[in-house]
């Protein structure tokens, strides 16, 4: 999808307030789509590259293998994590075991999980040999970081989630990935404006 088309797709949420209901106050504003470049680090570096010791080390994780099969499903999702008022960079090489990195981009690995990151832009790549719904819980399982309504990536507190510009109050682990989706997880206070990103057309 061309970058212009991506911008048009998400522009409807730019500078708009998230829908509210009687149980929630008026939501934050959302930025117009922000450009990014491949290999960029978006957010404050917080985590080491790759999976944690409890994440994927080559073994199957939640039924997801680490292999090099030709994908029949290839989609991209952007994940933003904001904790204690600071946007945290989602690190490169999640789901890429024995990775080779050039210019802050994973160019190869001993094996790739079907869900992985190539850089620290926050883009999650889904490249799977099966056409099925993968979830945020699958990604955090491979990463080896906690995911709940009180703990995201080791940051504890009340968690608010948005999918695109809509508040999501469901099970975070069951949140299904869709192409060009924007997922925002906020621990603690919600900022006045939440960033939305234009995924590069090269992906």
Explain the layout of strands and helices.
Elements: H1 3-11, E1 29-30, E2 66-67, E3 73-83, E4 86-88, E5 96-97, E6 100-102, E7 105-108, E8 111-113, E9 115-116, E10 123-128, H2 136-143, E11 151-152, E12 155-156, E13 159-163, E14 166-168, E15 181-187, E16 193-194
Parallel strand pairs: 1-16, 3-15
Antiparallel strand pairs: 2-8, 3-4, 3-10, 5-8, 6-7, 9-10, 11-12, 13-14, 13-15
Summarize, please.
The chain is mainly beta. Helices cover 8% and strands 29% of the residues. Residues 1-17 have low confidence and may be disordered.
Using brief descriptors, characterize the structure shown.
203 residues; mainly beta; disordered N terminus; 16 strands; 2 helices; seven-stranded mixed sheet
Structure description:
This protein has 203 residues and is mainly β. It has one domain (3-14, 29-194). 8% of the residues lie in helices and 29% in strands. The chain contains two helices and 16 strands. The strands form five sheets. Strands 3, 4, 9, 10, 13, 14 and 15 form a seven-stranded mixed beta sheet that branches. Strands 2-8-5 form a three-stranded antiparallel beta sheet, with no helix packed on it. The chain has a two-stranded parallel sheet with strand order 1-16. The longest helix is centred in the N-terminal third of the chain and has 9 residues, at 3-11.
Q: Work out the helix count.
A: 2
**H/E element string?**
HEEEEEEEEEEHEEEEEE
Percent helix among the residues?
under 10%
Residue-averaged pLDDT, rounded? Answer: 90
Shape: globular
The assigned structural class equals: mainly beta
The count of domains is: 1
């Amino acid at each position: 999808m061309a970058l212009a088309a991506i911008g048009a797709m998400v522009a409807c949420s730019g500078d708009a307030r998230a829908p509210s209901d009687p149980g929630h106050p008026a939501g934050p504003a959302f930025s117009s789509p922000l450009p990014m470049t491949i290999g960029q680090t978006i957010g404050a570096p917080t985590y080491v590259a790759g999976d944690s010791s409890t994440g994927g080390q080559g073994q199957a994780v939640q039924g997801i293998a680490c292999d090099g099969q030709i994908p029949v499903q290839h989609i991209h999702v952007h994940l933003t994590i904001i904790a204690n008022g600071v946007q945290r960079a989602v690190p490169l090489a999640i789901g890429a075991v024995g990775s080779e990195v050039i210019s802050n981009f994973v160019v190869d690995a001993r094996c790739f999980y079907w869900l992985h990151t190539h850089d620290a832009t926050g883009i999650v790549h889904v490249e799977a040999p099966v056409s099925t719904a993968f979830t945020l819980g699958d990604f955090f399982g491979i990463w080896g970081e906690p995911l709940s309504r009180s703990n995201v990536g080791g940051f504890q507190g009340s968690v608010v989630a948005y999918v695109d510009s809509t508040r999501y109050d469901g099970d975070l682990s069951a949140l299904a990935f869709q192409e060009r989706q924007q997922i925002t997880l906020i621990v603690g206070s919600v900022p006045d404006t939440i960033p939305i990103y234009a995924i590069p057309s090269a992906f």
